Amino acid sequence: MKKFKVSYVIGIVIAIAAIGVLANSIKIVPTGYTGVRTTFGQISQNVVQSGLNFKIPFVQSITLVNNKQQDVKFDNVISSETSERNEVFFTGITVTYQINAEKSAWIHANVSNYKNNLVSESLVASALKTASKTLTPTDVTSRNILEPLVKDNIQASLNEKYGSEVVTINKVVINNATFDDEYNDKIAQKQQAQMAYETQQIENKTAVEKAEADAKVKVTQAQAEADAKRISANAEADANRVIQESLTDEILREMTIDKWNGELPKVTGENGMMLDVSDIMQETNYDVNYITE
Question: For the packed helices 121-132 and 143-162, what is the interaxial angle rounded to 10 degrees?
Fold first, then answer.
């Protein structure tokens, strides 16, 4: 009976040991990760792919390396200058990076505490300061200009430090870029002056446009009056020409007769001599009606 109990206990121990050995022989590498195999402290350069992987129990170990996109955030204020020597302060910085799966073993072997030190704050601060010093105060507050420039600077620094295609910077986000109070006051004054200038320009443009419009109206009116006078003169000239062309000798004689009051000239002369014929006409009883007939 005692032998049975001892055998039973030994069997359980062996089973537990076997399970332990089996568990220590298997390593599951999740999707998005690679494994780095170490044998007696020696790192293998061949990475372990995702899935179920076997290793020698108590001899080998497999360490996981995250190859997904990862964010590292920096809460401290980073101060720098613009190209015009204006002091600027940056906060809310987030860098998104990704470790090349083929370089996982190299990273694990060569970068101490790579999870925290791979993209360090000092490296990001240096890249940010280098970028801001090339930009004007206006451009340094434009995320579309600043963030891509900082991203390229960080990537260049990582390539120089670790080699190309080891770490890829996918994105940089800089939430805030602010200046000191003195510069903010200057910016406010400049904006007010700019607004006043633009308002004056609009008023000047409006005045010029109105003056031009008024001038055009006057020119149009003068042109219309000139055209009207010319048309009237042309019409009168045409009428006179028609009348003149239509006056024949017979018409002129008839018009003269129509306008005659029936009296003959009382004075006539020739070669400078004037003769009053009114008395003669009375003596001879000249019949005017006879002439008109």
Answer: 130
Where helices occur in the chain by DSSP H, the ranges are: 2-23, 104-110, 114-117, 121-132, 137-140, 143-162, 181-246, 249-259, 278-284, 288-292
Do residues 222 and 230 make contact, with C-beta atoms less than 8 angstroms apart? no
Name the pTM for this structure: 0.59
Query: pLDDT tens-digit profile of 78-131?
Result: 999 999 989 999 999 999 999 999 999 999 999 988 988 899 999 999 999 999
Which residues have C-beta within 8 Å of that of residue 69, sequence separation ≥ 6? 96, 97, 98, 170
The token pair at 109 is 């072997």
Looking at this protein, which amino acid is placed at residue 56? I
Q: Are 34 and 47 in contact (CB under 8 A)?
A: yes
What's the token pair of residue 30? 């999740």
pLDDT for 190? 67
In DSSP terms, 37 is beta-bridged to 62
Half-sphere exposure of 176 (CA within 13 A, CB side): 12
CB 61 within 8 A of CB 36: no
Any bridge partners for residue 12, and if so which? Answer: none
| Domain covering 70-179 assigned CATH 3.30.479.30 in the classification | yes
DSSP letter at 103 equals: G
Q: Which residues of 206-217 are buried (b: 16+ CB within 10 A; e: fewer)?
A: eeeeeeeeeeee
Q: Where are the domains of the chain?
A: 2-65, 70-179, 187-246, 249-292
Residues ≥6 apart with Cβ < 8 Å to 73: 93, 94
Q: Retrieve residue 1's tokens.
A: 């009976």
pLDDT over 50 at 286, yes or no: no
Give CA 253 to chain center in angstroms. Answer: 89
CA distance 134 to 69: 29
Q: What is the pLDDT of residue 217?
A: 80
